[in-house]
Structure formats: C-alpha cells, structure tokens
Design a protein that fits this description.
Rossmann fold, Immunoglobulin-like, 5-stranded parallel beta sheet, 22 helices
Length: 765
C-alpha cells in the first residue's frame, strides 16, 4: 500500500485502535481492524520449516503443529557455505508459507556461537559473523522473494540459555560491533528483512527491547532497517520505554495492561502520539505487503519439498575424516549400519523451532535397493545406559561385515532451547559402542547427528567421520547419497571442533555469574582465538574434505598499494585435480599488520562455493572494501583501517593457508589526538603530524650540551651495562616529562610550549 494511503488509514483510527496494533491478537496473530479493512495476519516459528499451530499456541514446541517439511537446521545449512542453495531453501519455505497463509516466518536465527555449550546453537549459523550474515541473507532473500516476511533474530547477543530472559551480555564496544552486531548488519543491509526480533537479554545492563541506541540508533539510523521490530515472546520489560526505543510489536498478546500503559502515556503527555503513529505505520506496511501479494494458488508440495530438504542437506554435510579413502562405500561389500539413528535419526532440535514433520526418511530406508545392509541398534538413547544385549548384537553384526557404519550423536535431552549443555561429550553408551566395534572391525565410519561440536575420544582410531548435524527430515536419504558416492560431500565447518571443553575461548566465564555474562574473550571468538593462540583443534573452522581434490593457483590483486577508500579486486584460480565432480569452498582470509592493537591473527573476509568438473579450472573473484581491513575504533566510534601491510590469503580452512599476497593500505581517516607531558617519545617519533613540530625541537635537543655528553658517555661505555638496544627501548617509552630528569638544560616551560604546539597543529589539520 502506498504511504499516503497508509497515513490516511491511520488518521481514521482511534488512539485505542492504533495502540492495539502494537500488540498481538493472540499467540500467533496480529490484530486487525475490521471496520477499516485491516486484516489480521499470522506469524509462526520456523528458521528451518513451518511450525504452524492451529490450536493452542506455545513457544516451546510442546503443543503439536500442522504437518510440514523439516529442513536442515542452521548448524547444518551454515556448513554449506552455499548462498544459492540456502536461497533455494528460503524460496521453498516462502512458498509453503503462502500455501498455509503465514505472513511472516520467525527466522533466521543468527546469533554468534560464542561457546559450543549454548543450548540453542543448533539453530544458529556460525562462530563467524560473515558466514552467519551471508547465509542468513540468502535465506531471507529466498523467503521474501515469495512475498512472505522474515524475522531476523534474536537481536542481539543472545548467546546462552541460562537466565536468557534477564541475563546481561557484558562486553566492550569493539567486541559488540565486530562480532555480535556484524552477524546481523550485513544481512539487514543486503536482504532487508521485513521484521527483526529483539532478544530477551540485556546488553551491558540494558534490556535490548529498551535500548534506543540499538533499536533505533544502530538498526534504523545506521543500517537503514525500515520494517518493524517484534519482541521475542514475552521479551518486553517496560512497554512505553520499549515503544520509544523502537520496539514496535509486542508478542504474544497477554493482558491489555501494556496497551493501556501506552494510551495513558499519550494522554498524560509523556509519550507523543506521533511515536504510536510511526509504529502503527511500520506494522501496517508489512501486513499489507503480505496481503496485497497473497498467492491464493500456492500449494504445499510435500514430496517435492522433501526432495529439496534432501538436496540441501547433501550440500551441508561435512566429511571430517576419510583415511585410506574408506568413503565412498562400495555397494558390493558387506556393510553394517549400526546405531539407533540409522533407523530413527535425530534430525532436529527441541524447542520453538520443532517441526511436526510430514515424514522422516532414515538411512536404513534410503539404502534399500542400493546395497545389502545389515542393521543393529546398538544403543537406546532414552537413557545413557549400556544395553548389553543391544551392544553384543551390534558388535557381532560389525564383525561379520566388511565395513561398519556407526550412526551416533546427541539425544534430545543433551541440547535444546531453554538450557545449556554442561559438557561436549557424546553419551557414554555410544562411545563404548564405538570402542567395542573397533575391537572387532578395523573399517569403521562414524556418522554424527548433533547440533553442535562433540568430543570424540575414538577420533584417531576410526577411518571415516561424516558430520550430518541436524539434517532435517530427509537426512537419511542425503546421508546414503554421500556415503555411497552418489553425491560428493562439500560442506565445511562453520564452527571449530575443539579437542576439549577447556580449550574454548570463554571456558573460564561461560555460564558463570548470576545475572551477568562476562565476555572477557572479546573479539577472540572461535577460530580467531585458536589460530591466534596456535592451538591445535580436533577440526578447525572451515575444514571439510571431498571425494576429489582441488588445487589453488595464481592469487592476484589488482593493486599492491591502496587507500582505505579504494576497492581491492582479488582473484584466484581453483582446479579440480581429482577424478570426481565436486564443489570447492574458496575461503579468503586477511591478516592485519602487527601494531599496538590486539587483533586476531587472521579473519575470514570473503568466501564462495564453486562447482568443478574433473580437470575444470575456474577463476574466483572477490571485491574487498575497507571493512575487510578495518577494526572498530572506540575513539571515533566507527570502523578504522590502520596504515600498514596486510596479507590476503586463501585457506583450505582457518589453519591452513595455501596462497598469500600482500597489499599496503593507507588510512584516510584521522584519529583524534591529544598530546601531553605524558606522551612518549616513541609515539611522537612515529607520528607524521608530530614530526612537523618535533623535528626542530629534536634537532635542538641533539645539540644540547648535556645530551651530547650523555651520548658520548654511552659510546665510551665498555662495561656493557648500557647498550644501544636498552637506550632505544628507554627512549621509546620515555614520557616527555622525563626529559626534565635526564637531559640537562631542558625546562618544563619548553616542553609545555611544545605540547601546546603539537595540539594546535592537530586542530589546524
């Protein structure tokens, strides 16, 4: 609807009707105004499929929803590194929304994986903000291409389930900007979601829903978001404060008390009615964007969408290990499928995103007609207890086979919305099963079903490991296609698998504190920490094997020197040197120059996924702007590029760089400076602005008789007590005021005049 018509419509609404639009009609519906032709529309959960509850609504997945197709969860889809594939998933979900008359789907979930312990990590994409933002943007674009809205969530820093409704995520400004806000920024600017959902938690003591700085200053004024902000269900602290801050829609509908607070605030003059009008306009704009583009002919093609779910999952699976090319499997061999998840896979997480799946296709069902496979359950995942009978049957089945494929993972009770994990272990009964099978069978492949990293004590003993994550209802079909080589694995880890929990960056602080989460690790999340510490991991960020091999050559940049206002074009050739068609994930990392600033040793700044036939070579090109080299500078509260030589690298993963080149980057921004008698000589001698003033002074000081005598004494010292390195270090860290003590003839007045001249020079420039 045109804005003029919207404003005309709003002008006809009573104050109570306008305020009423600011909260839901019930658990899943927005209010309408029948007399003015404003319809009530439905929203529903669904980062990876529709959870449309026809009857009583709830936000934890307790009450059953209508049948729908369950797609791979965010933990899996991020591993695809494939924008086009995830866009296709979004298009499919958008079509399903049209068929089921759902105006907005509540996703994608795009919080950073600060720790692998977060109970909701299975929904989230990555520990890296670029991957999270790019894959979220692809899903948003796909869904909204069908004229259905999305809700980017949970904005922002919702990184734990412990006391998530009141806990404060406490961090410095740079960490918030570089890691947690960046995860949302790119997707909001690029894909323009219709709505954004604010998180329950506080940031640095203030509820996100009450934060004008975040909801208006950052989200709207800086990033240009023009949809409405909806609360997470029950995430409203103070309704009037939240409305002023930019929280438009409160969900779900509870009592009418919060609406009355808004009405009272307008009538007593503490809230300008124009704020209500603006909020009403944002909400109505999205309502009509959907209803005026409603596709009455849309159908929910369950079978077709199930096949799409299988296609998406096949592109997400990560081949972690493949010793002696045990995979793909030879269908003529005796193969044993062992583990409950081969028959009843764990394919989705618990909580608000839980889908009532149309059907679930297991690996045991999918392999029928392809190979002669024996099966043994091996364990029951209801309790972590060894069932001797099931285990003995599994060991015997494995012993009689040529290859044993073990389907294991985390049961529902180990990870879910609402609580965090306490450890990274698989159930003991499953680890014991793997150990027992290894005693009788040397050819063992493990297939993992889990929503987040696990510790694998048998990692070095098994021949193959395939990470399926929580792969959606068609996970069995996708798994069989990968295992038998009908499809080539192409997923890469979007998160690090540590060797042990105590290796993780926030190990000492995660889950600690009553109502405050202390982000002491700062910007060193995930691989930024492990690579900077040169710490060995089980599997690094970006890792993923293939049934073919790839070779990278000819890394080139279009300039070796540039300003931060320039674009840098980077190209690299990638060739399929193996004997099977496959997809390569080209990862570009940037390493900053070593300066006084603490920065990660390298950061992912671009990526692309390319498909190559056997022997085929393609050139992949990236465009890098200033953000590829920048950090968030708290002096100017903006992105800033330091002068220096940056390395541009192509990596097979975050640990292994295969090509690199360099580019000299010059900053065009001036940082604010204030000089004082405590400014050190080393800083002044490397500061071009200071050199203008310091040059004549230093020349005069060098001719000072006292300074000359000191220099001569050093040159004639044969004791070794004073050396040039020591003197240089002392001079670098010496504040100007100390010249009064060490250089005869220097007066405080002289130094104060110089400081004044330095500061005047900064003002004039």
């Amino acid at each position: 609807m045109e804005r003029e018509k919207l404003l005309e419509l709003i002008s006809q609404m009573t104050l109570e009707e306008k305020v009423g639009m600011c909260s839901g009609a019930d658990f899943w519906h927005l209010k309408g105004v029948e007399r003015l032709g404003i319809p009530s529309v439905m929203v529903t959960d669904g980062p990876h499929g529709l959870r449309k509850q026809a009857e009583a609504g709830d936000h934890l997945g307790i009450n059953e929803s209508e049948k729908a197709v369950c797609f791979p969860a965010g933990c899996a889809t991020a591993s695809s590194f494939d924008r086009e594939l995830i866009r296709k998933q979004g298009e499919t979900i958008g079509q399903e929304c049209q068929a089921m008359d759902v105006s907005t789907i509540l996703g994608p979930a795009m919080n950073i994986k600060r720790s692998p312990l977060c109970g909701r990590n299975f929904e989230y994409y990555s520990e890296d903000p670029l991957v999270s933002s790019e894959l979220a943007a692809a899903l948003i674009e796909g869904v909204q291409s069908k004229n259905v809205g999305t809700s980017a969530k949970h904005f922002v820093a919702n990184n734990q389930e412990k006391r998530r409704m009141t806990s404060s995520s406490d961090m410095d400004e740079r960490t918030l900007r570089e890691i947690y806000l960046t995860s949302f920024e790119g997707a909001i600017k690029k894909a323009k979601p219709w709505t954004v959902m604010n998180s329950y938690n506080r940031v640095n003591g203030e509820f996100v829903g009450d934060s004008h700085e975040l909801l208006t200053g950052v989200l709207r004024d800086e990033w240009g978001f023009d949809g409405y902000v909806v609360s997470d269900w029950g995430a409203v602290n103070d309704r009037v404060t939240a409305l002023k801050a930019g929280l438009d829609l409160e969900m779900p509908h509870g009592s009418d008390e919060n609406d009355q607070m808004i009405v009272d605030a307008v009538r007593n003059g503490t809230l300008d009615e124009s704020v209500v009008d603006t909020t009403c306009e944002r909400i109505l704009n999205i309502i009509f964007k959907y209803t005026e583009n409603r596709d009455e002919t849309a159908v929910f093609d369950y079978e077709k969408d199930h096949e799409t779910a299988a296609e998406v999952e096949a592109g997400c699976m990560v081949l972690l290990k493949n010793d002696n090319n045990i995979l793909p499997l030879d269908a003529s061999k005796k193969i044993a499928f062992i583990g409950k998840y081969a028959k009843s896979p764990r394919y989705q997480g618990g909580g608000s995103s839980h889908i009532n799946s149309w059907k679930v296709e297991s690996a045991l069902e999918a392999v029928e007609g392809l190979a002669d496979v024996t099966f043994a359950a091996g364990y029951d995942d209801v309790k972590d207890e060894i069932d001797e009978k099931l285990q003995e049957e599994a060991v015997k089945t494995a012993q009689e086979a040529d290859v044993a494929v073990l389907f294991i993972g985390l049961p529902d009770s180990f990870e879910s919305e609402g609580y965090d994990r306490k450890h990274l272990n698989l159930p003991n009964c499953q680890n014991e099963l793997v150990r027992k099978v290894l005693e009788v069978q040397k050819n063992v492949v493990v297939v993992l079903h889990n929503g987040s990293p696990v510790v694998m004590p048998w990692m070095n003993e098994v021949s193959g490991i395939l990470e399926t994550y929580l792969g959606g209802e068609a996970v069995g079909k996708a798994t069989v296609n990968i295992l038998f080589g009908k499809e080539n694995p192409s997923g890469h880890l979007a998160e690090t698998f540590p060797l042990k929990l105590s290796d993780t960056p926030c190990y000492l602080t995660y889950g600690k504190g009553f109502d405050h989460a202390d982000y002491q690790e700062g910007v060193f999340t995930g691989y930024r920490y492990y690579t900077s510490k040169e710490m060995k991991t089980a599997f690094p960020f970006g890792h993923g094997l293939s049934y073919t091999t790839f070779e990278y050559n000819d890394l080139t940049v279009n300039k070796s020197e540039m300003n931060d206002t320039d674009q840098l074009t980077v190209s690299v050739k990638v060739k399929n040197t193996g004997n099977m068609k496959g997809k390569a994930v080209v990862q570009l990392y940037v390493s900053a120059p070593v300066t006084e600033l603490v920065r990660p040793v390298r950061e992912l700044r671009a990526f692309d996924k390319v498909e190559l036939d056997v022997g085929e070579e393609k050139t992949v090109t990236f465009e890098l702007n200033d953000r590829a080299f920048a950090y968030w500078n708290t002096l100017i509260h903006d992105w800033y590029v330091e002068d220096g030589t940056y390395k541009v690298m192509i990596g097979e993963n975050a640990d292994d760089m295969v090509l690199e080149t360099e580019v000299l980057v010059h900053s065009t921004k001036k940082l604010p400076k204030t000089y004082s008698l405590n400014t050190c000589l080393g800083e002044l001698m490397t500061d071009p602005d200071a050199q203008v003033v310091m040059g004549p002074f230093m020349q005069g000081m060098a001719q000072n008789q006292g300074a000359v005598e000191m220099a001569e004494a050093q040159e004639n010292d044969e004791s070794g007590v004073v050396n040039q390195e020591m003197m240089a270090a002392m001079m670098e860290g010496m504040p100007l005021r100390q010249l009064l003590s060490f250089v005869p003839g220097i007066k405080r007045e002289m130094l104060e005049q110089m400081v004044e001249a330095l500061n005047n020079n900064v003002k004039n420039n």
